[in-house]
Amino acid sequence: MILTADKLEADLARNLAPIYLISGDEPLLTAEAVDLVRASARSKGYTERLTLSVDRYFDWSELRAAGSTMSLFADKRLIELTIATAKPGTEGGRALADYAASPPDDTLLVVITARLDKKSLQLAWVKSLAGAGRLVQVHAPDRARLPGWIATRMRAVGLVPADGVAELVADRVEGNLLAADQEIRKLSLLLDRGAVEAEDVARAVADSARYDIFDLSDAVSGGDLGRSHRILTGLQGEGVEPTLVLWALVRELRALAACSWSIQQGQREDQAFRSAGVWPRRQPGARAAIRRHGREGLLRLIRQAAGVDRVIKGSAPGKPWHSLGALTIAAAGSARSQRRGTV
User: Fold this and answer.
1) What digits encode the pLDDT tens for the residues 28-37?
2) Would you give the distance in Å from CA 167 to the centre of its chain?
3) pTM of the complete model
4) Which of the listed CATH numbers 3.30.110.40, 1.10.101.10, 1.10.8.60, 1.10.357.10 matches domain 146-207?
Protein backbone atom coordinates (compact mmCIF):
# COMPACT_ATOMS: atom_id res chain seq x y z
CA MET A 1 0.00 0.00 0.00
CA ILE A 2 1.21 3.52 -0.84
CA LEU A 3 0.57 6.37 1.60
CA THR A 4 1.53 10.02 1.79
CA ALA A 5 3.17 11.07 5.05
CA ASP A 6 0.13 13.04 6.22
CA LYS A 7 -1.96 9.83 6.15
CA LEU A 8 0.56 7.76 8.12
CA GLU A 9 -0.63 8.57 11.65
CA ALA A 10 -4.22 7.59 10.89
CA ASP A 11 -3.08 4.37 9.22
CA LEU A 12 -0.90 3.46 12.21
CA ALA A 13 -3.89 3.95 14.49
CA ARG A 14 -5.72 1.22 12.58
CA ASN A 15 -2.95 -1.37 12.46
CA LEU A 16 0.82 -1.81 12.34
CA ALA A 17 2.16 -3.30 9.11
CA PRO A 18 5.22 -5.60 9.18
CA ILE A 19 7.20 -3.36 6.79
CA TYR A 20 7.44 0.40 6.21
CA LEU A 21 9.41 1.88 3.31
CA ILE A 22 9.74 5.61 4.03
CA SER A 23 10.99 7.63 1.07
CA GLY A 24 11.77 11.35 0.91
CA ASP A 25 14.41 14.06 0.59
CA GLU A 26 13.03 16.34 3.30
CA PRO A 27 14.95 15.43 6.51
CA LEU A 28 12.48 16.91 8.99
CA LEU A 29 9.35 15.25 7.59
CA THR A 30 11.16 11.96 6.98
CA ALA A 31 12.42 11.90 10.57
CA GLU A 32 8.93 12.68 11.87
CA ALA A 33 7.44 9.84 9.81
CA VAL A 34 10.02 7.43 11.24
CA ASP A 35 9.26 8.72 14.76
CA LEU A 36 5.56 7.97 14.26
CA VAL A 37 6.32 4.37 13.32
CA ARG A 38 8.72 4.01 16.26
CA ALA A 39 6.14 5.34 18.72
CA SER A 40 3.46 3.01 17.39
CA ALA A 41 5.89 0.08 17.54
CA ARG A 42 6.85 0.85 21.16
CA SER A 43 3.19 0.97 22.16
CA LYS A 44 2.77 -2.54 20.74
CA GLY A 45 5.74 -4.08 22.51
CA TYR A 46 8.58 -3.63 20.02
CA THR A 47 11.12 -2.75 22.68
CA GLU A 48 14.36 -3.84 20.97
CA ARG A 49 15.70 -1.66 18.16
CA LEU A 50 18.41 -2.58 15.67
CA THR A 51 19.80 0.03 13.25
CA LEU A 52 21.58 -0.83 10.00
CA SER A 53 23.10 1.66 7.55
CA VAL A 54 23.80 0.67 3.95
CA ASP A 55 27.03 1.78 2.31
CA ARG A 56 29.30 0.19 -0.29
CA TYR A 57 30.67 -2.22 2.32
CA PHE A 58 27.33 -3.29 3.75
CA ASP A 59 26.83 -7.05 4.01
CA TRP A 60 23.23 -7.86 3.16
CA SER A 61 23.47 -11.08 5.12
CA GLU A 62 23.12 -8.81 8.20
CA LEU A 63 19.52 -8.12 7.22
CA ARG A 64 18.82 -11.80 6.66
CA ALA A 65 20.42 -12.68 10.00
CA ALA A 66 18.51 -9.96 11.84
CA GLY A 67 15.24 -11.22 10.42
CA SER A 68 15.90 -14.85 11.27
CA THR A 69 17.56 -14.54 14.68
CA MET A 70 15.46 -14.55 17.83
CA SER A 71 15.71 -11.42 19.93
CA LEU A 72 17.86 -11.78 23.05
CA PHE A 73 16.30 -8.90 24.94
CA ALA A 74 12.66 -8.60 23.90
CA ASP A 75 9.78 -10.49 22.36
CA LYS A 76 9.51 -8.03 19.48
CA ARG A 77 12.19 -6.25 17.48
CA LEU A 78 12.29 -3.12 15.29
CA ILE A 79 14.89 -3.10 12.49
CA GLU A 80 15.70 0.26 10.92
CA LEU A 81 17.58 0.06 7.63
CA THR A 82 18.82 3.33 6.10
CA ILE A 83 19.72 3.46 2.38
CA ALA A 84 20.87 7.03 1.78
CA THR A 85 21.01 6.72 -2.00
CA ALA A 86 17.77 4.72 -2.43
CA LYS A 87 19.88 2.31 -4.54
CA PRO A 88 20.51 -0.97 -2.72
CA GLY A 89 22.09 -2.58 -5.77
CA THR A 90 21.32 -6.00 -7.22
CA GLU A 91 22.17 -7.97 -4.09
CA GLY A 92 20.37 -5.53 -1.83
CA GLY A 93 17.27 -5.48 -4.01
CA ARG A 94 17.17 -9.28 -3.94
CA ALA A 95 17.63 -9.36 -0.14
CA LEU A 96 14.82 -6.86 0.40
CA ALA A 97 12.47 -8.70 -1.96
CA ASP A 98 13.27 -12.00 -0.22
CA TYR A 99 12.57 -10.43 3.17
CA ALA A 100 9.25 -9.02 1.96
CA ALA A 101 8.22 -12.42 0.58
CA SER A 102 8.21 -13.87 4.10
CA PRO A 103 8.43 -11.22 6.84
CA PRO A 104 9.40 -12.81 10.17
CA ASP A 105 6.91 -12.79 13.01
CA ASP A 106 7.38 -10.24 15.80
CA THR A 107 9.82 -8.20 13.69
CA LEU A 108 9.05 -4.80 12.19
CA LEU A 109 11.25 -3.55 9.35
CA VAL A 110 11.52 0.18 8.58
CA VAL A 111 13.50 1.02 5.43
CA ILE A 112 14.45 4.70 5.08
CA THR A 113 15.59 5.97 1.68
CA ALA A 114 16.00 9.14 -0.31
CA ARG A 115 13.14 10.07 -2.62
CA LEU A 116 12.18 7.31 -5.04
CA ASP A 117 11.52 8.61 -8.55
CA LYS A 118 8.91 7.16 -10.92
CA LYS A 119 11.37 4.68 -12.38
CA SER A 120 12.46 3.48 -8.94
CA LEU A 121 8.86 2.92 -7.90
CA GLN A 122 8.64 0.20 -10.55
CA LEU A 123 11.60 -1.78 -9.20
CA ALA A 124 10.86 -5.25 -7.85
CA TRP A 125 12.22 -4.61 -4.35
CA VAL A 126 10.13 -1.44 -3.95
CA LYS A 127 6.97 -3.19 -5.12
CA SER A 128 7.70 -6.13 -2.83
CA LEU A 129 8.12 -3.96 0.26
CA ALA A 130 5.05 -1.87 -0.59
CA GLY A 131 3.01 -4.98 -1.24
CA ALA A 132 3.97 -6.56 2.08
CA GLY A 133 3.58 -3.35 4.07
CA ARG A 134 3.46 0.39 3.43
CA LEU A 135 5.33 2.71 1.12
CA VAL A 136 5.24 6.14 2.76
CA GLN A 137 6.07 8.98 0.36
CA VAL A 138 7.28 12.13 2.08
CA HIS A 139 6.63 15.31 0.08
CA ALA A 140 7.62 18.77 1.27
CA PRO A 141 5.01 21.52 0.79
CA ASP A 142 5.72 23.75 -2.19
CA ARG A 143 6.14 27.51 -1.82
CA ALA A 144 2.43 28.16 -2.23
CA ARG A 145 1.50 25.77 0.59
CA LEU A 146 4.44 26.53 2.88
CA PRO A 147 2.76 29.39 4.83
CA GLY A 148 -0.19 27.13 5.63
CA TRP A 149 2.18 24.41 6.83
CA ILE A 150 4.02 26.94 9.02
CA ALA A 151 0.78 28.32 10.45
CA THR A 152 -0.35 24.82 11.42
CA ARG A 153 2.97 24.12 13.16
CA MET A 154 2.77 27.43 15.01
CA ARG A 155 -0.70 26.65 16.31
CA ALA A 156 0.53 23.26 17.49
CA VAL A 157 2.91 25.02 19.93
CA GLY A 158 0.34 27.56 21.10
CA LEU A 159 1.15 30.44 18.75
CA VAL A 160 -1.66 32.03 16.73
CA PRO A 161 -0.16 33.78 13.70
CA ALA A 162 -1.75 37.01 12.53
CA ASP A 163 -2.13 37.74 8.82
CA GLY A 164 1.24 37.81 7.10
CA VAL A 165 3.20 36.12 9.92
CA ALA A 166 3.42 32.70 8.31
CA GLU A 167 4.42 34.32 5.03
CA LEU A 168 7.16 36.27 6.82
CA VAL A 169 8.60 33.08 8.31
CA ALA A 170 8.31 31.32 4.93
CA ASP A 171 10.29 34.11 3.26
CA ARG A 172 12.96 33.91 5.96
CA VAL A 173 13.51 30.15 5.67
CA GLU A 174 13.20 30.07 1.86
CA GLY A 175 11.60 26.63 1.67
CA ASN A 176 13.78 24.81 4.20
CA LEU A 177 11.47 22.96 6.58
CA LEU A 178 14.14 22.23 9.16
CA ALA A 179 14.90 25.94 9.33
CA ALA A 180 11.17 26.67 9.59
CA ASP A 181 10.82 24.23 12.47
CA GLN A 182 13.81 25.82 14.22
CA GLU A 183 12.30 29.27 13.71
CA ILE A 184 8.95 28.19 15.16
CA ARG A 185 10.61 26.58 18.18
CA LYS A 186 12.65 29.72 18.75
CA LEU A 187 9.51 31.87 18.59
CA SER A 188 7.72 29.60 21.05
CA LEU A 189 10.56 30.16 23.52
CA LEU A 190 10.82 33.93 23.01
CA LEU A 191 7.13 34.83 22.74
CA ASP A 192 4.12 34.22 24.95
CA ARG A 193 1.45 31.80 23.81
CA GLY A 194 -1.37 33.40 21.84
CA ALA A 195 -1.53 35.92 19.03
CA VAL A 196 1.71 36.66 17.16
CA GLU A 197 2.08 39.76 14.99
CA ALA A 198 4.65 40.34 12.26
CA GLU A 199 6.33 42.91 14.51
CA ASP A 200 6.79 40.24 17.19
CA VAL A 201 8.56 37.99 14.73
CA ALA A 202 10.84 40.78 13.53
CA ARG A 203 11.68 41.77 17.11
CA ALA A 204 12.39 38.16 18.12
CA VAL A 205 14.70 37.72 15.15
CA ALA A 206 16.51 40.97 15.94
CA ASP A 207 16.90 40.01 19.61
CA SER A 208 18.41 36.64 18.72
CA ALA A 209 21.92 37.25 17.39
CA ARG A 210 22.93 33.60 17.40
CA TYR A 211 24.02 32.10 14.11
CA ASP A 212 22.39 29.01 12.67
CA ILE A 213 23.51 26.33 10.23
CA PHE A 214 21.96 28.13 7.27
CA ASP A 215 24.01 31.25 7.97
CA LEU A 216 27.02 28.98 7.59
CA SER A 217 25.79 27.65 4.23
CA ASP A 218 25.29 31.20 2.95
CA ALA A 219 28.75 32.33 4.08
CA VAL A 220 30.43 29.28 2.57
CA SER A 221 28.68 29.67 -0.79
CA GLY A 222 29.56 33.35 -0.88
CA GLY A 223 33.24 32.58 -0.27
CA ASP A 224 33.42 34.60 2.97
CA LEU A 225 36.16 32.72 4.83
CA GLY A 226 36.22 34.97 7.88
CA ARG A 227 32.46 34.90 8.44
CA SER A 228 32.35 31.14 7.79
CA HIS A 229 34.95 30.59 10.51
CA ARG A 230 33.13 32.84 12.99
CA ILE A 231 29.80 31.11 12.40
CA LEU A 232 31.33 27.63 12.70
CA THR A 233 33.02 28.63 15.97
CA GLY A 234 29.71 30.05 17.22
CA LEU A 235 27.83 26.87 16.34
CA GLN A 236 30.39 24.79 18.20
CA GLY A 237 30.15 27.07 21.24
CA GLU A 238 26.35 26.81 21.24
CA GLY A 239 26.54 23.03 21.36
CA VAL A 240 25.08 22.37 17.91
CA GLU A 241 25.53 18.74 16.86
CA PRO A 242 28.32 18.29 14.26
CA THR A 243 26.01 15.97 12.32
CA LEU A 244 23.53 18.81 11.79
CA VAL A 245 26.27 21.19 10.63
CA LEU A 246 27.57 18.60 8.17
CA TRP A 247 24.06 17.96 6.88
CA ALA A 248 23.64 21.66 6.06
CA LEU A 249 26.98 21.84 4.26
CA VAL A 250 26.37 18.65 2.25
CA ARG A 251 22.88 19.81 1.33
CA GLU A 252 24.37 23.03 -0.03
CA LEU A 253 27.16 21.27 -1.91
CA ARG A 254 24.76 18.82 -3.53
CA ALA A 255 22.45 21.61 -4.64
CA LEU A 256 25.39 23.51 -6.14
CA ALA A 257 26.68 20.40 -7.91
CA ALA A 258 23.22 19.73 -9.34
CA CYS A 259 22.97 23.32 -10.58
CA SER A 260 26.40 23.16 -12.17
CA TRP A 261 25.58 19.92 -13.97
CA SER A 262 22.22 21.22 -15.25
CA ILE A 263 23.82 24.41 -16.55
CA GLN A 264 26.51 22.36 -18.31
CA GLN A 265 23.74 20.37 -19.98
CA GLY A 266 22.28 23.56 -21.42
CA GLN A 267 19.53 24.32 -18.92
CA ARG A 268 18.86 28.00 -18.24
CA GLU A 269 20.54 29.18 -15.07
CA ASP A 270 17.31 30.32 -13.39
CA GLN A 271 15.66 26.98 -14.13
CA ALA A 272 18.66 25.07 -12.76
CA PHE A 273 18.57 27.07 -9.52
CA ARG A 274 14.81 26.63 -9.20
CA SER A 275 15.05 22.86 -9.73
CA ALA A 276 17.75 22.56 -7.08
CA GLY A 277 15.78 24.62 -4.56
CA VAL A 278 18.19 27.60 -4.59
CA TRP A 279 16.01 30.61 -3.86
CA PRO A 280 16.60 34.01 -5.50
CA ARG A 281 18.25 35.65 -2.50
CA ARG A 282 20.85 32.89 -2.36
CA GLN A 283 21.59 32.72 -6.07
CA PRO A 284 24.45 35.28 -6.15
CA GLY A 285 26.36 33.21 -3.58
CA ALA A 286 25.56 30.01 -5.47
CA ARG A 287 26.90 31.51 -8.72
CA ALA A 288 30.08 32.52 -6.93
CA ALA A 289 30.58 29.03 -5.50
CA ILE A 290 30.02 27.36 -8.87
CA ARG A 291 32.52 29.73 -10.50
CA ARG A 292 35.10 29.04 -7.78
CA HIS A 293 34.88 25.28 -7.77
CA GLY A 294 33.14 24.01 -10.89
CA ARG A 295 31.29 20.72 -10.77
CA GLU A 296 34.44 18.63 -10.27
CA GLY A 297 35.51 20.77 -7.35
CA LEU A 298 32.07 20.49 -5.77
CA LEU A 299 32.17 16.71 -6.14
CA ARG A 300 35.59 16.68 -4.43
CA LEU A 301 34.07 18.63 -1.55
CA ILE A 302 31.21 16.13 -1.29
CA ARG A 303 33.77 13.32 -1.09
CA GLN A 304 35.62 15.27 1.61
CA ALA A 305 32.31 15.59 3.47
CA ALA A 306 31.94 11.80 3.39
CA GLY A 307 35.28 11.62 5.22
CA VAL A 308 34.02 14.11 7.81
CA ASP A 309 30.96 11.93 8.31
CA ARG A 310 33.22 8.96 9.12
CA VAL A 311 35.13 11.07 11.65
CA ILE A 312 31.88 12.17 13.33
CA LYS A 313 30.68 8.56 13.53
CA GLY A 314 34.01 7.43 15.00
CA SER A 315 34.90 5.12 12.11
CA ALA A 316 37.87 7.29 11.06
CA PRO A 317 40.48 9.09 13.18
CA GLY A 318 40.18 12.80 13.82
CA LYS A 319 38.17 15.41 15.67
CA PRO A 320 34.71 16.27 14.26
CA TRP A 321 34.98 20.05 14.61
CA HIS A 322 38.51 20.13 13.19
CA SER A 323 37.30 18.13 10.19
CA LEU A 324 34.28 20.42 9.79
CA GLY A 325 36.63 23.39 9.92
CA ALA A 326 38.77 21.95 7.11
CA LEU A 327 35.68 21.29 5.00
CA THR A 328 34.36 24.80 5.64
CA ILE A 329 37.64 26.41 4.62
CA ALA A 330 37.81 24.27 1.49
CA ALA A 331 34.23 25.06 0.50
CA ALA A 332 34.48 28.78 1.20
CA GLY A 333 37.90 28.97 -0.46
CA SER A 334 38.97 28.24 -4.01
CA ALA A 335 39.25 25.05 -6.02
CA ARG A 336 42.98 25.81 -6.32
CA SER A 337 43.38 25.62 -2.51
CA GLN A 338 41.71 22.19 -2.56
CA ARG A 339 44.16 20.89 -5.15
CA ARG A 340 47.11 22.27 -3.24
CA GLY A 341 45.92 20.47 -0.13
CA THR A 342 45.86 23.61 2.01
CA VAL A 343 42.54 22.73 3.59
Assistant:
1) 999 999 999 9
2) 23
3) 0.60
4) 1.10.8.60
